[in-house]
Structures are given as C-alpha cells and as structure tokens.
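Assemble and predict.
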Amino acid sequence: MMTSTITLTANAQSISLSAKQVSLARDGNQILHNADLHIQAGELVGLIGPNGAGKSSLLRVMAGLLDADSGQVQLSTADQPPQLLANISGRERAQVLAYLPQQETPAWPLQVEHLVGLGRAPWHKPMSGKSARDKQAIEHALAITELQPLRQRIVTTLSGGELQRTLLARVFAGEPKIILADEPIAALDPYHQLHVMELLAEHAHQGGAVLTALHDLSLAARFCSRLILLQNGKIVADGQPIEVLTTENLEKVYGISAYVDCREEGVVIIPRKRVI
Amino acid sequence: MHTKISFSVLTIILLGAIVAAGALSLNSGAADIPVLQGFADIWQGEQSLAATILGQIRMPRLVLAIIVGATLGMAGAAMQGLLRNPLADPGVLGVTSGAAFGAVCVLYFGAAAAAWYWLPSAAIIGALLSLVMVYLLAGLHSSMLALILAGVAMSAITGALIAVALNFAPSLYAMQEIIFWLMGSLVNRHWDHVHIALPLAVIGWLLILSRSRFLDALSLGEESTRSLGFNNHRERGILLFGIAISVGACVAVSGSIGFIGLIVPHLLRPFVGYRPGRLMFASALGGALLLILADILVRQFDSARELKLGVVTSLLGGPFFLLLILKTRSRWA
C-alpha cells in the first residue's frame, strides 16, 4: 500500500493532462468552443457551470471517450514526453487516466469487492488470474473508501452514498494518476458529499490530479485548488475559487444573484434569486 | 440471493452431474444393450450389436448433446452479459433463425438427401450471413440497440422466408421434413455431424470465453468499459462472431432448440456471484447437462412417433421461465 503511494508521489510533478483549442459540435449545436485547460499533479480542479454548459462533454473529451471536432488532448506522464491522447492505446490510457461517469448503474447485483475489482481491468494480462498487485490495490481502494465492512454486500442493496463510494473505489483500484469525475457528489447527503470530496482531495494531495464537474459551489470552493467556469462551451474563468466565484460571474453565467462571503473556513455561497 | 459456493466446487458438481447424466444417456434407448460389454467390445474391436449401437448411435448423440447444450448455454450467458439484460438469448441477433433458414433452403430443394454435409454447411452459412446482414443494417459502429433492432428485423425476415418455403413446399414429405427439422432433434446423428460441429463450436467457445473480462467490465456500462481501456466495438464484434459460428454450427446439426440459452444462465447466475465472465463457463456446463437430461427424457416415450428435443426444451422451458420471472420480478423491477 505504501509503495504505490510513494511511486505516485515520486514522479508526480510531470503528470499533466491538457486540452488545446477543443471544439465540439453535435447536430448543429456548438457544445464546446475552443476550450483550453490544463491540469497537473497535485491539483483538484473543479469544473463548474450551469446545466448544459458542456461540462460532461469536456470531461469525456479529456477522458478520450469522445473525439473533438478540432483541437487536441495531450497527456504527459513521468517517463514519456507529452503524447496525444488519441494516439495512446486504450489500455495504456486507462492505466493512467480513470473516468467516473455521472450515473453508473451496475447491471448485475455484484458484490462490492467484485465491482471494485473491475477497476483492475487495465492491468490484467490475458490468460492469468488476479495478481498479488491486483489484490493489494483492491484492498487499498476498499480501505481508503472505508468499504471493508461492506465488501460482501450486494451493490444493488447499497444506499446512494455507499454506491458512489463503491464506484469511486473502483476508480481507485485501477491506481490511476489522473481522475476525471462527472458530478460525483450529485444526489448525495452532505456527509457523503464531504467524504467523496475528501477522497478526491487526498488523491490530489498524494500527487494525483483530479478534474471533477460539480454543482455545489460552496463545496467546490472549499475543496478545489482551482475552478474552471464553463458557459455555453466556453471557458469564461479559470483560477483560484475566490477569483472565479465572484458575484459578477455568478450573475453573468448562472443568471443568479448570490451572496458570496469569504470566511476563514472557506467561501460561502448562498443563491438568493434569479436575475434573468 | 447469493449462494455461498466456490467456483471450483460448482464446476466439479456440474462436471460430476454431466458424467452421471452421460452414463444414464448411454443406457437409455430403444434397444436394451449391455453398455459395459459394448464398451469392452469397442475396445477390443469386436463388431457386436452393443458395440455398434453404442459407438455409432448413442455416443455421437451424447457428444452432440454436450456440444449443443454447452454452446447454447454459453452463448446465452454471453448474450445476456453483452446486452446487460437477463432476458436475452442467443437468437436475439437473428443468428439462430438465419441458420434455420439456411437449413430450410436445403431441405426445400431436396439437396439434403444428396449428401449429409449440405444441411449443416447451409445452416452455418445462413448464421454468418445473418450476422453480416445485421451489421450491414445497423452499421459497424452502431449502438447495441441498433444491433438488436437489426437482429429482430432479420429474424422477422428469415421467419417469413421460412414460412414461404413451407407454403410452397414441393411435397407434403418435404414440408414435414422442414417442420421436424425446425423442432430440433439429436436423433440419427452420426460422427460426421460431430466432426462438422465440434471444430466451429470450439473456435466459437474460445472466442466467447476470451472476452469474459470485457463482459465483467460491461457490468458497469459501455462508457465505463471504454474508459477502462476496452475497445467496445472490437470486443463486441469478436463476441458476436464467436456466438454466430458456434450457434450456427449447433443449429446446423440439431435444428432449433430453444430456451436452453435463456434458462441456464438464469439458473446459474446466483451461484457465480452474478459475474458475467464466470457465468459463461458455468452455463456451458449447465447447458450440456440440461440437454443430456432432456435428450434422455425424449427417449422415454413411444419411439414410433418421436418426441422432438426442441419441443421438450420449450415445454419445460416456457413454464419454468414464467416461474422464474414471477419469483424474481420484484428484484428486476
């Protein structure tokens, strides 16, 4: 368990994922428009913006699941120069980069530990069973997500919070350096929201990089080292939470008038009323 | 419901049951022969009646029951895993009806009598052609839903063409032959049938089993599977090709035998912790077992008017499936 953490930190500095001038149109609608963004080791970056701003599409392009019409996504890892994500094999990409979709519903009533084990897929060799490293990674993932007591449980009987943690453990089990998560805390109670955000922050702290779409602006400000604000497929702000979450930006992008307060323990945002 | 039983124990139980059922199968038939003596005669190369019945009639029949049952069970489990739906069966993509249509064409033109290999070859070609047609209709990089719709359309078309063949059957005899063939049976099969079915079935099995990790990952959804590094289109293509050639080869020698591919995976799923990859292997064993038992049952009735194997599996399968749905509907609701 410790060794994996150490290796992650050792070559952490050179890991980065960047999108350059990414544009995407579907059925005549411009979904992404020349989006430029860069995330690197040690960062927990929040992707915020109203519904339909293009957060999910941008994440999927960054994850290599959706091909942009123009622009490129580059991945650099410790031992290699920057490469185009499109030129990397699916397996190699999956070993570095994990993606957690917005709604992932397991098709079968699997056990928690088996579902978490699916995250090891990028490391499996053909015609061989679970390696010692696989077992170790699965145990580590179960431990950090505090799922060990639930390991035998059937995923369809879990609460929403427990299921989300299980899916996150699936991501951690793959030992990715970069995690892209699409609204991982939507529909969770505050306790589980904090738990998931803490896990993502810890991953960044240990030298990983996280880009996550979020709707809860206060939690985004509290946990993210940087926020990227998206409006109609364009990145309109990118910086420290305090620089991004201004009353002007909230009014311009979200169409709301909000109370923004920077306190010792973080930024507090209380939406007051719609302005458009 | 998760039943605590390890995979190796399950495998051993199923294998043991197959051996027992196989022994019973060799003992059942119209003629009452000393089975052990028959084996001894085969071993010593003596041309006794028991040796002939055993070696030329009952053994190939048993081996075919195992091949066909295993293929249908495995293909059913693979299809259910691929569609993430417990109600799918190997016929969803029109492969079975394509194979049936190929065979019916041969029967219609009376070519089946010319040489024994015409029928199975036409069925395999029919199965592959319908898979190609489904891909052409749906497009190579289509969604699973488009493939299913194309498969349903192909099944409907081949079903209609089979009806046409029946309608214009040259003689009552040909019509009867087509209908009986469509019902599915393992009667009067010989080693040649094993030789044509086995290689294709084995290739199909290997292709299907080699994709078990993909099916496991697919439990999470197509998007997640891709993010885990799988090339979904490629994996799916390999899987469907494996299903098409193995099922095609089996339909070619046995005719259509329903419900095995639907029921066996359903029954065994709780015993493998609902994991699609392991379910395929277990379902192959379960399918072989069920078909051997059904084939024994068929032989218990009057041999003058033969009860068809496909009729038995449907008769048992239909109500049984209904029972399963009633029992589990709260869980899948």
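Residues 2-274 of chain A form a domain with the Rossmann fold fold (CATH 3.40.50.300).
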